[in-house]
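Following the same procedure, backbone shapes were mapped to integers, yielding the entry below.
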Amino acid sequence: MSAMSSCSFPEPPTRSTLEDARKQLEKQRSAVQQISAQIQAAEDDLDRIVKARRNAIQEMQKERSALEDRMSQTLAYLAHIRRLPHELLGHIFTFIFEDYPCCAWVLAAVCSLWRRQVLSMPRLWSKIKTTPTLHQRVICYINATAQIRLVTTQNSSPDTVRLWLERSGNKVPLDIEIFLHTPREASSHHHHRRSSTSTLSTVSAWDASWWENDLPGATPAPDTPAHGTGPGYLHIPPNGPPHFVPATALPPSPPLHHHVHGGATPIYHEVLHVPSWRQVSQTSRPSSGMHWGYITFYYLMQQMHRWERFVFRFDRQFASINALKTMMGDAPLLREFEVTGAEPALFNDWSWIPSARPTTSTNLPMLTSLTLQYVPFRWSSPIFRNLRSLCVRTLPGASFAVDRILYILSSNPNLESLSLHVSSANPAVLPTSQTAMEHLKTFSVGGHFLLAALVDCLALPVLGSLTIDIDARDPIEETLSQLLLRSNHPPVTWLSISYGLNTTTSGIYYHGGSAVTSWNFLNELDGLRTLQVGSAPFEPLVAILGTPEDDGQDQWYCPNLTSLLLKACRPSHTDGVAKLVQTVEARNPDPSNGAVPVTAGGVSPVKLRHLELHDCAALGLDVMKWLKSRIPEVRCTDPPYDP
């Protein structure tokens, strides 16, 4: 009504006024259509202008991108790295090699200039630590010290070893480290299907427990270069996890006649050509891996005179394990030699270096570190001479007399680290005499109970770490006390008794081990900082470490003790937990009350900083909370209960 009232039409409407209104409505409709057409035309003109301007802007953006690309190429051409002499670039690569021994594969994949430079430097290829694994993959593992470790399988191609040897020249000493993983029969098919679909995976670090499972699942594939089908790029962080690298990322072998740059300057070394196993056998390729060891060790044995360090570890017996029998010859540069099996295997008579006869002429003048675990060896082999570090774990079926084991020790008077685990021992045939090891600082012995007789023959004046894991028939404290007395009370800071894994063939994890009935010998270990004990009565040990007057003693036992680790030490009385609380209260009194440890004999103990209880006394929630309030680090495998 308001709209109608605003119009200039007379009221009330008549026939003539209605006719005029209809004519006026037609004119208004026509005017609206004209204006709408003008608006649409203006919008169309605007769209054409905007589209034209946008097209112009896009063309300018394309031109700018092209200019930026050319500018980047120009900047790359003018980059300082391109103006470096090849010799200086080689020095830079050498510095990188000192921190990351696996850098050669990465640097060779950057550009053709760097590839030629890397291939011309044999030293960058002197650490054989990376090899194609199952389905042509490589695992590069970087630990805290930036060392690279090889993890491979017997189905991988041995040609990578050949490539490495070719590129290392014929004079550079070799650092060889190979870890062979052999999947179990039950999981080999599943492992094959899973790993065939992945090109990049992650594995856990190689540790003392070895591998019990197959390689883990896959992670995203690595980046590939934008140019052609060249090798893939690999980024290795300083402390990153291990990576699988596709075999396509491994550059092929360099030609025999190559140059660093376009001039007439030859490469810095003559490439040593080793015949490829493809050339040796063109008719068949060992898909099952039964010949991997023979081919790989054929390549390696050709360069044995260049070995400076050789480490080979395998988690279980593999098809070509007899290839190790060919390891015989002179190694004038060899400093460290290790062959380790994670579990016992069946071996026939081997004629390799550790099993050589005493009359055999072997040239190993630089060898100072030797590790043989679950592999055969001869006690009189010339390899057991002038060593500083020796680690031996015998096969379950191999038996050695105590006097022959003592002969090995007496042949190496400069030993600083010694680890002996003998599963089967015989009584001494010849009379034994006291043997002083003037430089031995770390001593670990485990296995057969007759090894206690071996310990009775030793004097270790500078001993700092002692591990006893003997399956003793009698209490071991007398042996330990006499050892400390003969050694004139050495500065022992680490003591472990029956704490390690069972080294016998029974398969029992916890065992009686080196039984201890009296802990009075701890009175002679004032400098002891770490004490590990397994399978011993709980109360006597805890009580003797407590307040002197509580146990009828006149001084603190082990006053410098900071770490206490107990495994399978079951309490025989109900007051076991109470004695533990009393000991902790005496050594770690509540600082909020101003309490200090009791002084006995002018000595106050240092505070415990680390406590571990595995399969020992059952602690309540309140006891665990109280222990954590007194000791910075407390670990207990048994979940606490609330009684």
In short: The longest helix spans residues 15-77.
